[in-house]
Design goal:
single chain; 7-stranded mixed β-sheet; 3 helices; alpha/beta; Transcription Regulator spoIIAA
Length: 139
């Protein structure tokens, strides 16, 4: 899927929002970094998996944030995933786990579609693979 940045905003270096959209389909994926509240939101509001670029940027934000801060909460809300999504999520979780092991406080809340067992199972599998807290919330 070809993606482009359609909106990037910052507010006093405390909030970074990047919205991605497939040009012809108006589908939006969002990566929001709230530095002040130490929260990274990764979400997709459509039936297409998130782009590789979104996962890469999320991993960069995690590493950047935890260089100078002691905690980060990652909020994930995905409707669909594919092999690239799993690899991107693995990179995110590996970065979080590395920081957890050196004493940083990290956690994840993952909202899954209430009617999609596959996404719930994926979230559960990730929660079992890593040491830090992962809350799975059927939504």
């Amino acid at each position: 899927m070809n993606t482009q940045v359609i909106n990037q905003t910052t507010n006093n270096d405390n909030l970074l929002a990047i919205n991605y959209s497939a040009p012809a389909k108006k589908k939006v994926s969002t990566l929001k970094y709230d530095k002040r509240n130490e929260v990274l939101n990764i979400s997709s509001s459509h039936l297409e998996p998130l782009s590789v670029a979104t996962y890469f940027k999320a991993t960069q934000v995690i590493k950047y944030h935890l260089q100078s801060k002691e905690s980060l909460h990652v909020h994930i809300s995905l409707i669909k995933y594919n092999a690239s999504s799993i690899k991107g999520l693995m990179n995110i979780f590996n970065a979080l786990n590395h920081k957890w092991k050196v004493g940083k406080e990290v956690s994840v809340s993952w909202i899954t579609p209430w009617d999609d067992d596959e996404v719930f199972d994926l979230a559960y599998d990730f929660s079992e693979l890593f040491d830090f807290p992962v809350d799975i919330i059927p939504g």
